[in-house]
């Protein structure tokens, strides 16, 4: 996985301007998102700009902040090529 997250955060911020913020997430919805993108907790933390422990807290039911929900939505809207550059191969897309 690429460690250059600044560019991916900038891209996610741009995309987030064009998409609606998802509502609050349950712990199972957060975990399902991570698994759809085939990310470990550490990888999810990297692409979201958070620590591994924070990702664990989200999966235990701690509220997911709006900025993180926007980043999650942005990652789901990125073209497959850009996801591949981040080392992400989501299960909901072909190719």
**SS element count, helices:** 6
| Cα shape | globular
Task: Count the beta strands.
Answer: 0
CATH class descriptor: Mainly Alpha
What is the terminal separation in angstroms? 18 Å
Which CATH architecture is right? Orthogonal Bundle
CATH topology: 434 Repressor (Amino-terminal Domain)
Number of domains: 1
Uncertain stretches of 5 or more adjacent residues: none
Run of helices and strands: HHHHHH
Going by helix content, strand content and strand pairing, the class is mainly alpha
Biggest sheet features: none
Please give the radius of gyration in angstroms.
12 Å
Q: What portion of residues is helical?
A: 55-70%
Output mean pLDDT: 81
3D structure, described in words:
With about 100 residues, the chain is mostly helical. It has one domain (about 5-85): 434 Repressor (Amino-terminal Domain) (Orthogonal Bundle). It has helices at about 5-15, 25-35, 40-50, 50-60, 65-75, 80-85. The longest helix is centred in the first third of the chain and has 12 residues, at about 5-15. The radius of gyration is 12 Å and the shape is globular. The two termini are about 20 Å apart.
Please specify the SSE layout and strand pairing.
Blueprint: H1 5-16, H2 27-36, H3 41-48, H4 52-59, H5 66-77, H6 80-85
Helix pairs in contact: 1-5, 3-4
